[in-house]
């Protein structure tokens, strides 16, 4: 009855009692006694009084929910981590260790989770709520939390608040419906996955949709065809170079540039060699004076960015997009070419183009030589991009050698290295720390990187080095030594 009265009250309140007269229907119970005192036909004050009385009646009469007891969680089949390891994780999650700050404790907890997941061990049920809260605030640990949470984590997430929903959501592969109705990113993802499975099917799908696609979407879809790229793709990519839209031409050119043996690569090599020649062992470059139709067809953009001249822009692109192996025409090795003197006018542009070429073509040998050529005088972000394309063993050897020469120059490369660091790098760091003459040069950054870069198995060697140093130097290594010991203990407890 109160619901019916409430609807009448709302209708009159919305349009006004002058336009919609409100005559209360008859009711019973305690509410009848209150409403009868207001009269049969209500004025505005009476409407508000009746609304207050009906609101109280609705709330007071609401029946309590009767939640059903959930089914018990399925039993775990994987083993739990040892008790000492469980206690370690609980302490890290609670921030109860006075030796380390809360941020460091969370990073150590993340390492605990990674190691346990790799070893197929589960966290105990008592820690699952804390892990769900950790994953809710830090998406980077969710995969590890799911792995160590077992079936009970998913069960608990279903009973808990909505912020735990990530624990029961699974990564889904792209579906055909994503291509038809998905967002641009979904369609790119679907096409990329299809190309990886069946390159021809992906190509046919793209060519069928080509006329309906706008330029930006089409450029992204062409880039997705880097998966499964092969000689059969050259004809349609060459045809794409005739598209009137610059974004489409540039996307096609980038793929043709990494397609071995393509005609595009030969055209770009010819252009680059026509712009550069050797005179008295010097590399002399001549920038083009115009961006002609053939250059535009091959994805050379005409308009330079702000504060860059047109000829500089065109020359840098030609050098970047030319295959790096074309420079064997002048020198058999990258080191041989870069050892030559560059002309003063276009030399910096030539170096910049070669650097971008090494990065975009992911050429490890060129990257190594360009790093050595640019340490201390080139943009640090660019050097880090070069380091990222080098094979891990080669990068480790290069950094170890440079650490032995000068710590300051290479310490900022260290976070590019995969963790734990390879033995040559860790050994070189220990040599630097043991050398009294070099120990203070760049030591602070070096030690901060080493806390997480060192393999925990190095803990005994680091402790021995720490104990062998004078007291002032021991204080410098105190945090590094403590952190490595804690990480070592985590790995041992999860054995």
Which features would summarize this protein structure in a list?
495 residues, mainly alpha, three-stranded mixed sheet
Describe the overall structure.
- With 495 residues, the protein is mainly alpha-helical.
- The protein has 27 helices and three strands.
- It has a three-stranded mixed β-sheet with strand order 1-2-3.
- α1 (2-15) runs antiparallel to α3.
- The longest helix has 18 residues, at 142-159.
- The model has no long low-confidence stretch (mean pLDDT 89).
Estimate the mean pLDDT confidence. 89
- Low-confidence segments, given as residue ranges, are none
**H and E order:** HHHHHHHHHHHHHHEEHHHEHHHHHHHHHH
The termini sit apart by: 67 Å
Main beta sheet: 3 strands, mixed
Order of neighbouring strands in the sheet with most strands: 1-2-3
Beta-strand portion reads under 5%
Say how many strands there are.
Answer: 3
Shape: extended
Structural class, by secondary structure, is mainly alpha
Rounded Rg:
34 Å
Count of separate DSSP helical elements: 27
Approximate helicity band:
55-70%
Biased composition (Low complexity): 61-77
InterPro entries: DUF5691
Pfam families: DUF5691
Region (Disordered): 61-80
């Amino acid at each position: 009855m109160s619901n019916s009265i409430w609807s009448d009250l709302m209708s009159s309140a919305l349009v006004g009692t002058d336009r919609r007269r409100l005559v209360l229907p008859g009711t019973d119970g305690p509410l009848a006694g209150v409403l009868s005192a207001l009269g049969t036909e209500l004025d505005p004050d009476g409407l508000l009084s009746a609304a207050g009385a009906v609101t109280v009646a609705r709330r007071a009469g609401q029946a309590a929910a009767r939640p059903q007891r959930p089914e018990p969680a399925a039993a775990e089949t994987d083993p739990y981590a040892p008790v000492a390891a469980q206690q370690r994780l609980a302490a890290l999650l609670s921030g109860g260790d006075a030796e380390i700050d809360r941020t460091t404790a969370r990073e150590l907890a993340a390492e605990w989770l990674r190691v346990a997941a790799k070893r197929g061990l589960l966290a105990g049920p008592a820690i699952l709520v804390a892990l769900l809260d950790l994953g809710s605030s830090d998406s980077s640990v969710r995969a590890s939390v799911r792995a160590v949470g077992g079936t009970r984590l998913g069960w608990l997430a279903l009973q808990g608040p909505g912020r735990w929903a990530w624990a029961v959501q699974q990564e889904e592969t792209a579906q055909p419906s994503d291509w038809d109705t998905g967002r641009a990113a979904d369609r790119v993802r679907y096409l990329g996955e299809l190309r990886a499975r069946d390159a021809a099917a992906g190509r046919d799908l793209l060519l069928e949709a080509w006329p309906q696609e706008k330029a930006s979407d089409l450029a992204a879809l062409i880039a997705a065809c880097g998966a499964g790229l092969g000689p059969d793709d050259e004809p349609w990519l060459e045809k794409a170079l005739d598209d009137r839209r610059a974004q489409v031409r540039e996307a096609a050119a980038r793929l043709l540039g990494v397609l071995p043996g393509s005609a595009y690569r030969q055209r770009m090599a010819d252009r680059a060699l026509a712009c550069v020649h050797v005179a008295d062992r010097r590399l002399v470059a001549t920038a083009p004076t115009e961006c002609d139709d053939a250059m535009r067809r091959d994805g050379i953009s005409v308009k330079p960015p702000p504060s860059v001249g047109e000829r500089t822009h065109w020359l840098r692109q030609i050098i970047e997009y030319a295959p790096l192996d074309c420079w064997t025409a002048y020198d058999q090795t990258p080191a041989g070419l870069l050892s030559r003197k560059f002309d003063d006018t276009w030399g910096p542009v030539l170096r910049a183009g070669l650097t971008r070429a090494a990065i975009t073509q992911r050429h490890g040998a060129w990257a190594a030589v360009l790093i050595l050529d640019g340490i201390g005088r080139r943009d640090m972000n660019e050097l880090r991009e070069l380091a990222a394309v080098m094979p891990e063993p080669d990068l480790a050897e290069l950094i170890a050698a440079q650490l032995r020469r000068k710590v300051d120059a290479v310490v900022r490369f260290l976070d590019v290295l995969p963790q734990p660091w390879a033995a040559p790098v860790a050994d070189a760091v220990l040599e630097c720390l043991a050398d009294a003459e070099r120990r203070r040069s760049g030591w602070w950054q070096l030690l901060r990187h080493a806390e997480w870069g060192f393999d925990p198995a190095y803990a005994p060697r680091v402790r021995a080095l720490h104990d062998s140093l004078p007291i002032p130097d021991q204080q410098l290594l105190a945090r590094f030594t403590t952190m490595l010991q804690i990480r070592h203990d985590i790995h041992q407890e999860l054995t």
